[in-house]
Structure formats: C-alpha cells, structure tokens
Design brief:
seven-stranded antiparallel β-sheet; single chain; alpha+beta; about 375 residues
C-alpha cells in the first residue's frame, strides 16, 4: 500500500486544450478518494495520468516514495478496474483472475492461493470454471475486481466501474466495493459522475469542474458546506435550491417576497441564497411564509418531492408524504440552514453570526411587497 501525491498536474492536448488544470491532491495510505463531476470535467483524464495511460503535461505524480511520470503503467504497482470489465472471453474465471500474476512469473502455489482468496472474498468460488459469457453483469464486475485484488497492488484505480449495471445492482455493488476496500486497506481512487455513488463510497470527495478542483472534503462536509454554487447544485439529490436575492438591511428580497432575520449587514447587497430541499418545512399557523406554487409532485414513498416556483423561481421541497397539499403551500426555513454565495464568482460566503447560532428565533418570511 502507498500514499499517492498529485502535485500541480495538468493535461494539455494539441491546440492548447487544457483538460486538467494544475490539480493537486495528497491521498493518504489506505484512503478511498472519489473524483466526481460532470462529463468532460477531467476526472477520467486525471485517473489515466495516475495510471500511466495518459502522459502528464505538467506536474508530478508520486506513488509511494517514487515519482512515476515516466514509469510504464505495468511498473507503477497499480491495478485498474474499468466500466467495460475488460475480461478475456476465451478464458475461464480462474484464468482471468490468474492472468496478471502468471505473467509476472508468480509460483503456481501462490497463484492458486491468491485466486482462491479473491474468489472467496467476492463469492466467485462456484464460477471459477465458467467463461465470462456465462456470467451476469455483476458477476463479471466481481471478476474484474478480483483480478485487481489478486495482484496485491499499492493502489486500486476505478474508472466508473458500475456504470454498465442496472440501478439495483449498482447499489449492492457499491456496498461490496466499500466493504472490500476497508477490509484490504488499499489506497483507492474512484471516478464517477454519480454524486450519490460518490457520497456513499468516499472517505473524501474531490469535486472537479472544467478541469479544476472546486472542493475537496469529507462527503458530509461538502454536502453541508459547499464551496461554490457549482458544488451546491451538483452534490445532493435533489440539488440545492439557488435563488438570487437583494439585501436591504436585514431583509433579503426574492422578487416580491422577503426574508427577514438578524445581522445580515455583513453580506453584500446582491447574493445567491442556497436552500436545501430537506431544510424547507411547512409554516405553522401564525408564521409568515414564502408562498410556493406547486408545479408537480414526485412520490418517493418515505419522502415527497414538491416542485414549484416562487415568483417564477424554481424551488424543490422535500416533505413528508402525510402532509396534505393544495395548489400553493407556505414554506419557511431556519436561519442556520441558509447558504450564501457571491452571485458573480459563485463562491461561498461566510454565514453571518446569527446563521451560526442554533438558539435564534425562526426567520420570518414577510408578505409580498405592495405593488
């Protein structure tokens, strides 16, 4: 096992196209890092540079105690798991598992022991004599993971390994990957565009956008304190509601409706306000509120997603399925649950003092302004 240090790494293609822009990540020995972001953000390119499948234009990649920029992929002591399994169709499961270590001249007794142990971990014992065409998608992915395990590498690199599986199988497989990584303690880098997959697997998330890092942190830290509107809108399902607002004193104006709380004067006069769907609640009798006109409702069983608009601005609220709904509903939110962003840069702004204090009274949603 080894730490991985990625320092100021860039990838520049012909014509000056910069796919990865001076990325630095220090990955601890045994840590599970997930690179997450939309298609084209540079996450797979970065992973391939660590693997040696892409040349590094600038910067360094260090695995253990050596810089590997010019080291061939086979000599980097890493194992990669791809989304397309990359199994040899004419070989049995046993031979697929054993292939990599056979090529390294490993003694047969040790190969047998490694294959047997990997098959036991992945519940593949019954399938060792089968060929890939006789396996399900989930079993094929287990074989691909087993081939990586048998090599006993310093690090695992996963490139969207679950993207070809159906939704139910993805859920069970990501649980298996997490348990397996914890058991083996192998340093791992995992690429996905699925933010739910990223949240459930990662020790730390690396959120990428346009080839640059937007935020690095533990999943819940990234979720509760997104560093930018991009992270706020990408991490979380449903995405955080983002509304433009004008501040006047301690009032935030959202079109014709206004939110009032204390000590907002440290904030700029123009803001983007973030509201998580689960932080919105139905206003109680006597509370002034924000009026949401409902467009449609998603019934998810344990939760109900109510999609609507406030003065034409889209909002989603996550509510209990027991709540009765009309065409419009009154919503409110606690001050500590508000997020503030710069509308020009999209960067997170510090919360004012009142938003950091749990003992403050409920924020007040004022009635629409006259005219």
């Amino acid at each position: 096992m080894s730490a991985i240090n990625i320092t100021n790494v860039s990838k520049i293609y012909a014509g000056g196209v910069e796919a990865v822009k001076s990325v630095s990540i220090d990955i601890a020995d045994g840590e599970f890092i997930v690179l997450v972001g939309p298609s084209g953000c540079g996450k797979s390119t970065l992973l391939r540079m660590v693997a040696g499948l892409e040349t590094i234009s600038k910067g360094t990649v260090e695995i253990g105690d050596r810089i590997v920029n010019t080291v061939e992929p086979a000599e980097r002591d890493i194992a990669m798991v791809f989304q397309n399994y990359a199994l040899y169709p004419h070989m049995t499961v046993y031979d697929n598992l054993a292939y990599g270590v056979k090529n390294r001249g490993t003694p047969k007794a040790e190969i047998d022991a490694r294959v047997t142990e990997a098959a036991r971990m992945l519940q593949l014992e019954k399938y060792l004599d089968r060929k890939p065409r006789a396996l399900s998608g989930g079993q094929r992915q287990r074989v691909a993971m087993g081939r990586a395990i048998v090599r006993k590498p310093a690090a695992f690199l996963f490139d969207e390994p679950l993207s070809n599986l159906d939704a139910k199988l993805r859920v069970s497989m990501r649980g298996e990957i997490k348990q397996l990584q914890k058991r083996l303690g192998t340093t791992s880098i995992y690429v996905t565009h699925d933010q739910l997959e990223a949240m459930t697997l990662a020790d730390r998330l690396v959120v990428l956008n346009g080839g640059e890092i937007e935020q690095i942190g533990r999943p819940l830290d990234v979720y509760h304190s997104p560093a930018s509107t991009f992270v706020a809108s990408f991490i979380g399902s449903p995405a955080m509601n983002l509304l433009r607002a004008n501040r006047e004193g301690n009032r935030l104006h959202f079109g014709s409706q206004t939110l009032e709380t204390d000590r907002l004067s440290t904030l700029p006069t123009e803001l983007t306000i973030g509201l998580r769907a689960e932080d919105l609640r139905i206003a109680q009798a006597g509370e002034q509120s924000l009026t949401l006109k409902i467009d449609y409702v998603e019934e998810l069983g344990a939760q109900r997603l109510v999609h609507g608009n406030v003065d034409g601005k889209a909002i989603t609220a996550a509510l209990s399925p027991e709540i009765e709904l009309a065409d419009t509903i009154a919503l409110t939110i606690a001050p500590s649950r508000l997020h503030f962003f710069d509308p020009t840069t999209g960067k997170r702004l510090p919360r004012p003092l009142d938003a950091c204090t749990s003992t403050l009274p409920q924020a007040t949603m004022l009635e629409p302004a006259a005219g």
